[in-house]
Design a protein that fits this description.
Radius of gyration: 20 Å
Number of domains: 2
CATH class of the largest domain: Mainly Alpha
Largest sheet: 6 strands, parallel
Distance between the termini: 41 Å
Strand content: 5-15%
Shape: globular
Structural class: alpha/beta
Low-confidence stretches: none
Number of strands: 8
CATH superfamily of the largest domain: Dehydroquinate synthase-like - alpha domain
Helix content: 40-55%
CATH architecture of the largest domain: Up-down Bundle
Order of helices and strands: EHEHHEHEHEEEEHHHHHHHHHH
Length: about 400
């Protein structure tokens, strides 16, 4: 009854999924009447040649192309301003984002900032956003954040050194193209980071206080797909298009589950950890996920036991609490198998850093603390972090 009394948000943009689906970008751009497109990406994507198929498709549709590749991790305000200016200066009537989560977030943020005269201050006041920007097509090149099917973007205020999650209905893509061919040659470390980010999305959504039947539908499939495909994609993904395809689907499903049911303290810890240790968001989530799960088990034993089953653990004939504990072991085993750090000390975090991390979480991410399946105090967070050292 409690779930039925709550409105569960669900919105999925127009989406094309499949091998070589990216070659349809020109056809979609033509439908929007586009004459000049700004391709938002990063230098790494440019070097791989992944833009070639996008550019050819747009050129075939008689769409002129400008490229903006001055992007970096977590979309700093300075990059957003430059990208928004590039949209206006070049007279672009379409933005095509091609890249990982930071690039897609940059595209979303820049489109809206450009439509508000370049004012980045609106990112702190999303309720004051009054209009959408030019049409936007998003193509993920990693199987991780799920930013392509989300209306949330994370940016970084360089002045305050704060990561700022921003939510707005103006961030929805007009079209999404999920083409596993764009992830085929993703380096193993990025495959690991982004894949574990997907798992964190799905497990947090599935075990949170706001878990819902809607979110469960996506979360259960995402957990299973990651457990069955991440190791293969990490080991030699370029030879396993099926694993890349399944991970691409898992990424979108993971964020859809999170949008329906919400995240908790794994994600709230990942932001200060990522900045403090200079590691990716996915790596920070992967590091904290098993420690937070271990702390939270008592708050949702049945759900964590189900996570263990979804990840392929044998749970028949053992007590519920033992089944639940197997979920922690399954996550830790997967994280180790794909070469990720298991201790905070491995990424340069020491005991003296913990108070600052705890303060950050309680100041900026109290909404995620409220969604945690177990009550969390400052002492609890301190103990979790010390255990993870």
């Amino acid at each position: 009854m409690e779930e039925m009394s709550r409105i569960v948000p669900l919105r999925i943009p127009r989406t094309l999924i499949g091998v070589d689906a990216s070659e349809q970008v020109g056809t979609i751009a033509k439908e929007y009447g586009a004459k000049r497109a700004l391709l938002v990406t990063d230098p790494g994507i440019v070097k791989t040649g992944l833009l070639d198929r996008i550019q050819k498709s747009l050129e075939k549709a008689n769409v002129a192309i400008e490229v903006f590749d001055d992007s970096s991790t977590s979309a700093p305000f300075s990059s957003i301003s430059k990208c928004a200016k590039a949209i206006g200066d070049n007279g672009c009537d379409l933005v095509v984002g091609i890249g990982g989560g930071s690039v897609l977030d940059l595209a979303k943020l820049a489109v809206v900032v450009a439509s508000h005269d370049g004012d980045t201050n609106i990112l702190y006041k999303p309720d004051t956003m009054k209009k959408p920007g030019v049409p936007m097509i998003l193509l993920p090149t990693t199987a991780g954040t799920g930013s392509e099917v989300s209306n949330v973007a994370v940016c970084t205020d360089e002045k305050t050194k704060r990561k700022v999650p921003v939510r707005s209905d103006y961030f929805w893509a007009d079209a999404v193209i999920v083409d596993p061919m764009l992830t085929l040659n993703l380096p193993a470390p990025i495959t690991a980071d982004t894949g574990m980010d997907v798992l964190s999305h799905a497990i947090e959504a599935y075990t949170s206080l706001k878990a819902s039947v809607v979110g469960d539908t996506f979360a259960e499939k995402a957990i299973k797909l990651v457990a069955e495909n991440l190791r293969i994609a990490y080991a030699r993904g370029s030879k396993h298009i099926d694993a890349r395809y399944n991970m691409a689907i898992a990424a979108s499903f993971g964020i859809l589950s999170l949008r329906s049911s919400g995240s908790y303290i794994v994600h709230s810890l990942s932001y200060p950890l990522g900045m403090k240790a200079n590691i990716s968001h996915g790596r920070a989530c992967a590091l904290m996920l098993p420690y937070v799960m271990d702390f939270n088990l008592i708050g949702n034993l049945h759900r964590y036991a189900k996570v263990a089953e979804l990840m392929g653990e044998s749970t028949e004939g053992i007590p519920l609490n033992e089944k639940a504990k197997k979920s922690v072991g399954a996550v830790r085993d997967l994280s180790q198998d794909v070469g990720l750090p298991q201790r905070l000390s491995e990424v340069g975090i020491s005991k003296k850093d913990i108070p600052e991390i705890v303060d950050y979480v309680f100041e900026f991410h109290s909404y995620q603390i409220e969604n945690n399946p177990r009550e969390v105090t400052r002492d609890d967070l301190n103990n979790i972090l010390e255990t993870a050292l």
